[in-house]
């Protein structure tokens, strides 16, 4: 066959789809009603490869068959498309279907026609988002090879841009979720995926971090921190279910205290300044250049340091909660209320905060700060604090001092919880109608945390026995609180409280030790 005339007559291709046993070949679809075109194209391009990946040909002999095929094969790199088949514009209809109905702007489409006048080149390129237009008679072997290189290179680059855009979107979405050690996984995985794409690696990787620095047991255990590609399912598991071959490679790296190459993979071993250790497995068929390995090391070091920091922050939060619980309990010993009063005030306040639309961080702040609402009780004499019956005017003035005293005590700390607790202590006796104390502020001028805690404190107190009265049921307490809506309490918050009676009942009936 001469190089000047590629599409000579020949026998019909034997089947529509060749199955080539290779790793991730480039898919090229031939759409033409002339069987000889399929056979000659396959023969001429036999053995062609690009970026060390071969080509897999798919054949369709009509526009209808082409539509069905490309709807199933969503990763076709190149379509060699005849114009005139069962209809004069069958090829153009296929192009329209790919671009407009499948919304596929990545696949490269090259029109090949033996009747150039049937579909003028200028009109086709302009109106159908076609990437190239060729007369069958002008396609020599050299030009066809050039066409394949150009189209596949373009498809590769556009695909990488789309993958990077999608990965960047996942990174951005994951940023908002990084607030504790467990939420770090999606963020770390999204970043790892982007790095692998940038380095041109296959995308199958798993990153594990040592727990020995913070482990209660002190043993050298590992946690899966990030996973991509086919290993993504490991994110929901612990290190013990990692593929035995990967685990063995990790074990070898731990023993040697350094990374190494194995058959089809790279293992990285890293240590942070805090002494924690990390292991990175990357499926790699080629040696990773030094600059790329340094980027992976930078990733491992930074993710490990962030994770260590989150672990420390989490332990600090737990310690803070414990200290606040002890402080609240100590304050409550200067009260007629049982010890679990402060816990239930915290839980009720958190529920109201959440149902009011506050974010998770604000809800947790209120949960921890509300139990300190009566911190000022420490300044009250027992004769005032344990007084039964009505106060005299002098006694009332002394009793009301506890709001400002508590605020002054708590505001001395720069901690966010203590700052909010100071506001709550100052304002939880203010009334919606302005007739409360100590300042007589009203409505939305009262901080929402103060308004919420006032309801929670009153509701729980009504349900408890006092020396001078019996506690009422939760339902009766809700009715009494509702009766003070718009006077003592924020009417919107009261509506939210009543709408969530089931949650209120669950909190009020919860065990003291929960």
From TrEMBL:
Residues 316-513 form the HD-GYP domain. This is DUF3369 domain-containing protein. Residues 27-151 form the Response regulatory domain. The keyword Phosphoprotein applies. One of its GO terms (biological process) is phosphorelay signal transduction system. Transmembrane segments: none annotated. SUPFAM superfamilies: CheY-like, HD-domain/PDEase-like. The keyword Phosphoprotein applies. It comes from Oceanospirillum sediminis. Keywords: Phosphoprotein. The modification 4-aspartylphosphate is found at residue 82. GO terms for molecular function: phosphoric diester hydrolase activity. SMART domains: HDc, REC.
